[in-house]
Amino acid sequence: METPEKLKQLVREKYSQIALQNKEQNQSSCCGAGGCSEEVYNIMSEDYSQLKGYNADADLGLGCGVPTEFAGLKAGDTVIDLGSGAGNDCFVVRSVVGEKGKVLGVDMTEAMIEKARANAEKLGFNNVEFRLGEIEKLPVTANKADVVISNCVLNLVPDKRQAFVEIFRVLKPGGHFSISDVVLEGTLPQSLKEASEMYAGCVAGALQKKEYLDIIGEAGFKNIQIRKQKNIVIPDDILRAYLNPEELIENKKNGAGIFSLTVYAEKPLDKACCGPDCCN
User: Residue 273: inside a domain, yes or no?
Assistant: First the structure.
């Protein structure tokens, strides 16, 4: 596996390319010279088109869930979206929190930030802001957000423990998060784990489900709940780009599962600092 900085650069390059395309172009993209059904990063996306606040220009066909569905949003809330892309989830959030709420999207890809800002300007929203930054070091003060959301992004972060420490830091005491992400049960073939496209496609960087949930608890969160889980099936025409016929058969026998989870958790009311131990 590459170094953390090389992985971040890989993600920046891939998602900068995605930012320059619309949803239809992304979904018709090919993953190899021989052609395939869809790229890994968009086989997990869900339909947002019927949601209040949906904006087609902000929908790039990314994500692996609808975290706003379980976010318990209220009018006037301050909400941070991690890995906000072109602003899709932010604009859905804004339709709930209203003009008195505040929506902040953070993304580490400049092209995505530019696209999101242009979308917000077209919509005339003055309470939706987008900042360039990394999830492991958020450009946000402590105890800022009522709710944090994220959609299929934390699996792209090399240091997931630090990511959840940062989420804990920026949430207000009593605040909560709703995060859709990809996790594993079982072991992926080594060639998949080492494939850069599989990392950018949210698979190779995914943690085991138990480890993922343990990290959330270790960061100080309580009342951790899985609100939704669905199986992700990678089509054979994509897998053939990374696995030979024998490996493809073995992978099916192995029965490793790839899942989209939407997880909810709360920051305790008595925690007003940066992590589970810093107030001791």
Answer: no
